[in-house]
Amino acid sequence: MNNWTxxxxxxxxxxxxxxxxxxxxxxxxxxxxxxxLRRHVEQEVAALRLPVVTHDDxxxxxxxxxxxxxxxxxEETPPSPRWDRPKKLxxxxxxxVMLFGIVLPVIxxxxxxxxxxxxxxxxxPLPTWFHVLLAAA
Length: 137
What we know:
- The chain has 137 residues and is mainly α.
- The chain contains 6 helices and 2 strands.
């Protein structure tokens, strides 16, 4: 049998009481839920073979069960692998993307629409407005 400190008992009882209030507000059987939670905590303590159960032990076990009713769940996200992380582009590369991905195509399409230089020499790459939209996309 494990020895429980007074603060460990108070922590567990406080946790169970907060759960009792939360569960009874939802309409479930609060006594059954509290008994299950108590049994689960005691099983965890037995599995850990703790000689003395402290306040920190109870909090650690309770957090494994779920967040405390008056706490937000911890914001723990595992670090993503290197290939999943978005790479921060240097400012020069974003300027190049803007220049070659937006500005140059707009100038090229506008130039062809105004002069029809390619249409008169080779073939008409933009015969209809639908083709202009396709090229712009």
